[in-house]
C-alpha cells in the first residue's frame, strides 16, 4: 500500500512505506466470497457508479496457498548492520541494528531463464533475537517465493518487525509486522496481502503514471474496490493486479460470480495488464493447458546466431548533438529526463531511428554503443524496423524491453546477449509488441491458436504477448532462414504451430531483406 497523507519518504535504498490498512483490510470481514459495500453485492446496474468489492486481498482465502511452488532457494546469514526502516508501531522512520539475511531465488530472469538468481535482503528487528530473526526471515522468504516473478524481481528488501500493524510496500521494499502476519495466515489471506504489497513494491513505479494505465482507468465503468476509488493513484493498480491474477490465471480458486463481476467492472485494466508480458512463474507456468508439451525452451535456441550483424541493412549513422529527452530507465523503473548524446541511424527502407545514449557514457564509448546496436537493429526485417521510433541506451544489467515505440537497452545485459549470439533474435521478439497489439484480438489469430492447441516454446506459455513474439520468430526462422536451422527443427516448428504459421503467411509482412533468402 502506498504512503498516506502527511507521510514523508526517503531514498529507495532505505524507503519503506505504508499508511493505513491494506485495501481496507482492517474494515473488512469474512472469507470466501468478497463482501460488497454495506453488506450487499453490487448489481450490474449499480456497477458503473459503485465499486463491487471493498478489497481484492479477500477475494478468496485460497487464491495462493502454501502448497503452491516457491522459487525460494536458500537463506544466508549476513551478520548485523544499521538500516533505516519504517516502523508502523512508532509511525516513523527509525534506525536499527538489524539482523541481515540474503534470500536467493531461482531463475527470475525472463530473457535468458538459466543460471540467473534474484536476491532480496531481509532486515529483521533485533527484538527477535538472532534465532527468531532467522526463522522469521526464512518463513517470509519462502512465502515471497510463491509470488509471480514479475513481483519478485522488483524487490530489494523486506523489513520485519513485531506488532499487529498493517503491511506496506513501495520502491522495492515490503514491510511486515509479524503479529499481523500471523492473523492473516490464520484467516488464509497472508499470501494475498503479500501479492498486494508486492505489486506496490515492484510495479507501481513503472505503471501507475503510464498513459496506457491512465487510459484504461478512464475507460472502465468504475474501480474494482472502494479503497482504490478513494485512492486511485496509490491503490488502483495493486487492487486491479490481484483481480487480474484471479481472472486470468487462478479463476478456479475464485467464485464464478466474482470472476464475471471483475470482467465487467475493469475490462480495460485487464487488457492493459494482459499486454505487459509479466512473468507469472512459479505461480502460473502456462497461460493455458496445451495439448502437447512445447518442443523448445526458447525459440532463439533453435539456432543461436541465426540472425547476425552481417544481415544488417543499416546505411549510416551520425551524431546530431545533445538535447533533453524523457526516456525510460529500467533501473529506476520509470521515465526520467536526461540530456543524452543523440545519434540518427538511417536504413534503406527510409526509416530514421534516434539513438539516445545516457550521458553516463563517455562520448567515444557512446559512439561504439550506437554502432553496435544500430547494426543489430538493421538485422531486423523492415516490418519491425518500422515499429521502432527511438532507442534508449543505458548502463546496467536490466533486460531489454520495448515501450511505446522505444527500444530500451541496458548495455551490461545486452553485451551478454550479444556475446551469446542471441541479441538480434531477442530484438525481433521485442519489436513484435506493436504487431501483437494490432493482431492479438483478431478472430484469425485467436482461431489459429485454438486450432494449434500447443505452444512452440516454454517461454511462449508465459503470456499472450510472449506467445505472439515467439511464434513470429519461429515463423521467421522456418520460412525465411530454413538453411540456418536443422531441418528437423524446422519441421518441429511447422508441425507444432501450423495455424499460427499460416496466419503469419497471410499477413504479407515486409520481411526484406529476408525474403531474398527464400527459395
From TrEMBL:
<dbReference type="InterPro" id="IPR006311">
    <property type="entry name" value="TAT_signal"/>
</dbReference>
<feature type="region of interest" description="Disordered">
    <location>
        <begin position="39"/>
        <end position="59"/>
    </location>
</feature>
<protein>
    <submittedName>
        <fullName>Uncharacterized protein</fullName>
    </submittedName>
</protein>
Amino acid at each position: 500500500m502506498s504512503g498516506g497523507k502527511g507521510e514523508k519518504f526517503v531514498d529507495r535504498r532505505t524507503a519503506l512505506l505504508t499508511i493505513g490498512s491494506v485495501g481496507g483490510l482492517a474494515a473488512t470481514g469474512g472469507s470466501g466470497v468478497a463482501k460488497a459495500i454495506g453488506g450487499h453485492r453490487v448489481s450490474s446496474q449499480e456497477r458503473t457508479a459503485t465499486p463491487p468489492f471493498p478489497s481484492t486481498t479477500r477475494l478468496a482465502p485460497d487464491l495462493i496457498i502454501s502448497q503452491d511452488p516457491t522459487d525460494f532457494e536458500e537463506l544466508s546469514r549476513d551478520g548485523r548492520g544499521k538500516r533505516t526502516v519504517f516502523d508502523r508501531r512508532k509511525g516513523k522512520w527509525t534506525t536499527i541494528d538489524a539482523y541481515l539475511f540474503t534470500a536467493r531465488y531461482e531463475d527470475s530472469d525472463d530473457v535468458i531463464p538459466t543460471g540467473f538468481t534474484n536476491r532480496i535482503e531481509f532486515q529483521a528487528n533485533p527484538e527477535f533475537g538472532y534465532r527468531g530473526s532467522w526463522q522469521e526471515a526464512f518463513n517470509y522468504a519462502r512465502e515471497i517465493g510463491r509470488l509471480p516473478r514479475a513481483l519478485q524481481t522488483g524487490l530489494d528488501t523486506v523489513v520485519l518487525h513485531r506488532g499487529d500493524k498493517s503491511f506496506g510496500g513501495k520502491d522495492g521494499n515490503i514491510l511486515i509486522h509479524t503479529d499481523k502476519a500471523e492473523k492473516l495466515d490464520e484467516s488464509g489471506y497472508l499470501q494475498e496481502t503479500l501479492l498486494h504489497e508486492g505489486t506496490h513494491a515492484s510495479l507501481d513505479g513503472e505503471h501507475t503514471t503510464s498513459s496506457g494505465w491512465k487510459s484504461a482507468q478512464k475507460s472502465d465503468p468504475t474501480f474494482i474496490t472502494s479503497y482504490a476509488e478513494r485512492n486511485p493513484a496509490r491503490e488502483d493498480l495493486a487492487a486491479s493486479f490481484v483481480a487480474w491474477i484471479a481472472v486470468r490465471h487462478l479463476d478456479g480458486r475464485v467464485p464464478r460470480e466474482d470472476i464475471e463481476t471483475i470482467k465487467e467492472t475493469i475490462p480495460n485494466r485487464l487488457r492493459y495488464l494482459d499486454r505487459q508480458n509479466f512473468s507469472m512463474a512459479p505461480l502460473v507456468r502456462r497461460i493455458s493447458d496445451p495439448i502437447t508439451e512445447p518442443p523448445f525452451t526458447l525459440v532463439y535456441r533453435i539456432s543461436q546466431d541465426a540472425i547476425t550483424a552481417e544481415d544488417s541493412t543499416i546505411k549510416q549513422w551520425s551524431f546530431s548533438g545533445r538535447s533533453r529527452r524523457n526516456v525510460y530507465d529500467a533501473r529506476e523503473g520509470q521515465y526520467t529526463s536526461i540530456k543524452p548524446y543523440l545519434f540518427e541511424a538511417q536504413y534503406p527502407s527510409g526509416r530514421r531511428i534516434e539513438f539516445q545514449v545516457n550521458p553516463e557514457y563517455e562520448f567515444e564509448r557512446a559512439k561504439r554503443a550506437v554502432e553496435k546496436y544500430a547494426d543489430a537493429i538493421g538485422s531486423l526485417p523492415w516490418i519491425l524496423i518500422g515499429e521502432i521510433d527511438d532507442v534508449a541506451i543505458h548502463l546496467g544489467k536490466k533486460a531489454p524491453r520495448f515501450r511505446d515505440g522505444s527500444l530500451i537497452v541496458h548495455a551490461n545485459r545486452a553485451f551478454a546477449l550479444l556475446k551469446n549470439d542471441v541479441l538480434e533474435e531477442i530484438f525481433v521478439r521485442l519489436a513484435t509488441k506493436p504487431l501483437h497489439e494490432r493482431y492479438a484480438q483478431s478472430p484469425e489469430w485467436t482461431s489459429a491458436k485454438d486450432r494449434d492447441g500447443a505452444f512452440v516454446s516454454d517461454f511462449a506459455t508465459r503470456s499472450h504477448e510472449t506467445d505472439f513474439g515467439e511464434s513470429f520468430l519461429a515463423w521467421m526462422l522456418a520460412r525465411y532462414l530454413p538453411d540456418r536451422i536443422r531441418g528437423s527443427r524446422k519441421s518441429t516448428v511447422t508441425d507444432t504451430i501450423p495455424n499460427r504459421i499460416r496466419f503469419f503467411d497471410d499477413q504479407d509482412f515486409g520481411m526484406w531483406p529476408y525474403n531474398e533468402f527464400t527459395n
